């Protein structure tokens, strides 16, 4: 089991940037793919970005491709989400999550593939 704590959310103007961090504790962090999801009021939780356990593959939702970058530092037990060119549609609570399966070949994107979740961090983009 991996314990996850997100940070870095806040209020930003449209066009601005934020970097989210997710600190993980537990022996399996470096062996599991990590993902970022978000949930806006009245909407379902949706996949934003994912990164393979080794860090050599990433996957993005079409809505954030080219604007967001996911990365990880296994030595620090941390995964990041750099968010640029933010707009009002990016307003949501952002969650990081750890894959249920270790050493998965592909980058998972279904929320049902992830077994550990953080508490979330709010991102609000003002227009």
Could you characterize what this model shows?
This protein has 127 residues and is mainly β. The chain contains no helices and 11 strands. 35% of the residues are buried.
Number of DSSP-assigned strands: 11
Cα distance spanning the termini: 39 Å
Helix content: under 10%
For the sheet with most strands, the description reads: 7 strands, mixed
- The quaternary structure here is single chain
Radius of gyration: 13 Å
Pattern of helices and strands? EEEEEEEEEEE
Descriptive key words:
11 strands; 0% helix; 127 residues; mainly beta; 53% strand; 7-stranded mixed sheet
SSE layout:
Elements: E1 3-7, E2 10-13, E3 18-25, E4 32-39, E5 46-51, E6 58-60, E7 68-73, E8 78-83, E9 92-102, E10 114-117, E11 121-126
Parallel strand pairs: 2-11
Antiparallel strand pairs: 1-3, 3-8, 4-5, 4-9, 5-6, 7-8, 9-10, 9-11
Question: What's the short version?
Answer:
By secondary structure, this protein is mainly beta. It has strands at 3-7, 10-13, 18-25, 32-39, 46-51, 58-60, 68-73, 78-83, 92-102, 114-117, 121-126.
């Amino acid at each position: 089991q991996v314990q996850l704590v997100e940070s870095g959310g806040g209020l930003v103007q449209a066009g601005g940037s934020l970097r989210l961090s997710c600190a993980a504790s537990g022996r399996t962090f470096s062996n599991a793919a990590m993902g970022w999801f978000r949930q806006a009021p009245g909407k379902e939780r949706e996949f934003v970005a994912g990164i393979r356990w080794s860090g050599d593959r990433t996957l993005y939702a079409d809505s954030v491709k080219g604007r967001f970058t996911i990365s990880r530092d296994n030595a620090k037990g941390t995964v990041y989400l750099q968010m640029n060119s933010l707009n009002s549609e990016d307003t949501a609570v952002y969650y990081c999550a750890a894959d249920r399966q270790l050493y998965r070949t592909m980058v998972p994107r279904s929320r049902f593939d992830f077994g550990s979740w953080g508490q979330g961090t709010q991102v609000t983009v003002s227009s």
